[in-house]
Amino acid sequence: MSQAPVILWFRHDLRLCDHYPLDTTARLSVPNIPFFVFDEVGEGDWPIGGASRWWLHHSLEKLGKDLERLGSRLILRHGRTETELAKLVQETGATAVYCHRRYEPAARKLEREVAARLKKDGVELISFPGQLLFEPDDIRTQQDKPYQVFTPYWRTCQKQASRIAAPLGKPRSLPAPTHWPRSELLNDLQLLPAIPWDKEFYDTWTPGEAGARARLMALRRSIADYPAERNRPDHEGSSRLSPHLHFGEISPRQVWHAVHKWIDDGVVTAGAANVFLAELGWREFTHHVLHHFPSTPKSALREEFRKFPWKDSKTHAHAWQRGLTGYPIVDAGMRQLWRTGWMHNRVRMIVGSFLTKDLRHNWLEGARWFWDTLVDADLAQNTFNWQWIGGCGADAAPYFRIFNPTLQGRKFDPEGGYVRRWVPELARCPTKWIHEPWSAPADELAAAGITLGVDYPEPIVDHAEARDRALEALGSIRRK
C-alpha cells in the first residue's frame, strides 16, 4: 500500500533552500505535493499589484523547473485557497498540509480559515516560522508591549541573534506521490500584463531562487562600500534583494548568515556590515508593527493624523505618478518605478515627502500607487515606510521634516547622472542646473535644447510655499 502524501502549500516562500516544510517532509520520506494557489480574494484589501504579478509569474515558473529537477512538480490552482486545498486533499488523500507562516492580517485570517476547513476533513495544517529572523510576538519591551521605535527594537533583536539558526540545505530529491493531481497551466493564472508595459523588467530583474543567489553574491562584492553607496541613486549601491526576500526566493536567515561569514572571512568590517544588517532589521520591524497594529494599512497609527487636512488634486496626483512634477529628482524616481518596478530607497523618501508634504496628498494614495507598481510591494514595509515619511506612523519622521527635492538631488545625485538616465529631456542640462532647471539662464537652457513648459514641465508647486502650507496644516491638527 502506497503511503498517503502531504501537501506543501507554497506562499511567500518560493525556494527550495532553507525551507522548513520541504526539509521536514523530505527527511520523513513522505510523498509530497508542492502546491500554489493564486487567491486574490484571500489577500483582503490588498490583492497583488500589477508589477508584483509579473514577478510572481516568473518566480513560479522558476520554482516549477527547480522542483522538476528534484523529481517533483508544482501544482497550480486559481481560486479560494481553503476551497482548492480541500479539493486537493480529497483528490489525493493527503493527511496534512505544511506551510510557512505569513504575518499580514489577511494572510493570518486565511490561515485560520484554512485550518478550520481542513480540520473538518481530519487534516492538520502545520505551519512553520521561516520568513522572518524573529517571530513578531517574541520581541517585546520590558513592559511586555510591542515596540514602536526601531532603535530599541533592533537592539533587543541583536541581543537575541544567537537564536538565528543556520539555514537548511536543499533536499537532493523529493518523494513523489503515486498519482499526480491535475494542475492549471501557469498562463491560466493570467499574471502577465495584456499590454506589454513590462519590457524593461526583463532587463532589470531575474526572478527565482538562482536570481536571488546572484544578487546575494553581487552584494558580497559591494558590501564594503554599502554605507557610503546606499544613498547614491546614480550608483549601483543597493542590494536589490527586496523582491527576492518578499517572495521568499531567499530567506532572511540565508542573508544574515552569509553576511556574518563575510565578516569572518575579512570581506567586510563588522561596522559596514551592520549598516546593511540594520536594513534587514528594518524589514523585521515593519512586520512586527503590522502584526501588532493590523489596522495600519488603512489607518494612520498616530490618531491625530486621521484628522489631517489632506488635499485631493487629480492633476497633481497624475503629474506625480507620471514623473511630470517639474522637480527632476522626483520625476526620475517616478519614471524609474514605472519602467522597472523599483525605485532607489533614498529617492522613495524624496518622492514620498513630495507627495505628502509639498502636494499634501494622503500617504495612502502613495501607498496604493507603490503597491501596484513595485515588484517588491510588501504590505508591512509599504505601509510602514509611507507612514514614516508621512509623519503619522511608528517611529515616524516628524511631519515637519520636509525634504527639499532640489537640495536632496544635489546631495545624492551631485553630477545628475540619475536624473539624466531617467529624465532624458534634461540630458544636456548643465550640472549646475540639473536639479533646478527653472533657475537656469535662458541661453543655457536653449543651448541644451530645453524649453521649459514644452520639453520639460515647470514645477507644479513652489517648494517653499508648499512647505509653509504643510506646516500650517500640521499646526491645525495640533490646535484641535
Please tag this protein with its features.
DNA Cyclobutane Dipyrimidine Photolyase, subunit A, domain 3, 480 residues, 20 helices, Serine Threonine Protein Phosphatase 5, Tetratricopeptide repeat, Rossmann fold, 47% helix, 5-stranded parallel beta sheet, globular, single chain, mainly alpha, 5 strands
Description:
This protein has about 475 residues and is mostly helical. Helices cover about 45% and strands about 5% of the residues. The chain has a five-stranded parallel beta sheet with strand order 3-2-1-4-5, sandwiched between helices. The chain is globular, with a radius of gyration of 24 Å. The mean pLDDT is about 95.
Strand segment tally: 5
* CA-based shape: globular
CATH third-level topology of the largest domain: DNA Cyclobutane Dipyrimidine Photolyase, subunit A, domain 3
CATH superfamily heading of the largest domain? DNA Cyclobutane Dipyrimidine Photolyase, subunit A, domain 3
Backbone CA Rg: 24 Å
Task: Give the class from helix and strand content and strand pairing.
Answer: mainly alpha
User: Main sheet, how many strands, which sense, barrel?
Assistant: 5 strands, parallel
